[in-house]
């Protein structure tokens, strides 16, 4: 456009990560050289991202072109400033470039807030999801499956995030077929026995034969909605259609909303039924412990890892972490992300409650560390 200002509206300084992939990074020198070239042409530029961020709670997005890929909790993005606000080599190289352009030094940047390593946190109590259901959650009864957005909840606004548990009575076993109606991932149980998972690629499971009537349970996770692209109008979550056992569609559901909002977490805190964590336990279940902070809280990072005790279970496979009732975000052992950013304002001086919803196998401890680890890196062009 003649005689119009030129601007690069979104220059990517890095890229976001998906579960199961690498942690993407973008070469700092290449980025700064590109910025210099754009400015030399007399154009303005917007850096996306300048400051990395965090997809707290269930707020991560997703991609869905050839396959569905959910974003991780961290939105560090390999940005100019990290998700915790720390400086990077990109920051200092950009400062040097801008100083050269204006012909004078830039003011000194602010001091970075130090990070804390509070050590090991023992998760000493647990309560099974199956024990939570009758005391904290009232099911919605429906002949047909209902996707989470259309559940009669929250003043008829439905459920937006989290999990939904669908229960139906079955007689016998056979082939369970989802026909692609699971959004986005379902753990399948017969009574409380774990059978397997259904998702976009796994659409069929074999259910074992058994005597009498049994409960089939599908714990469906909304892993995150697509935030751009052609699938924007196809983001209903939960069960979006019929699921079949052999050739018969499942009917007469009890549907439990597991939005895990603050009121639910407050009720969970005061419910009876919490007990000591056994040597080995398979979820889904809630686990809780305490982080004690002597002085003014500082930013930290939570690392979920296997227990250090010999012959102990591997621990902490997939789930969600809550700190003082707030949803910090998801973790998953497939990576790449291995630490969750926990900002100081979420913490209190004294006792802090840590609750973990673990879908599979639980550990016994988590670590508070002062350095993030976002996974194995891969450079992007």
TrEMBL record:
It comes from the Eukaryota. Residues 158-259 form the Beta-galactosidase 1-like first all-beta domain. Residues 2-100 form the Glycoside hydrolase 35 catalytic domain. GO terms for biological process: carbohydrate metabolic process. Residues 284-352 form the Beta-galactosidase galactose-binding domain. Keywords: Glycosidase, Hydrolase. InterPro entries: BetaGal1-like_ABD1, BetaGal_gal-bd, Galactose-bd-like_sf, GH, Gly_Hdrlase_35_cat, Glycoside_Hdrlase_35. GO terms for molecular function: hydrolase activity, hydrolyzing O-glycosyl compounds. Pfam families: BetaGal_ABD_1, BetaGal_gal-bd, Glyco_hydro_35. Belongs to the glycosyl hydrolase 35 family. PANTHER family: BETA-GALACTOSIDASE RELATED. This is GLBL2 protein.
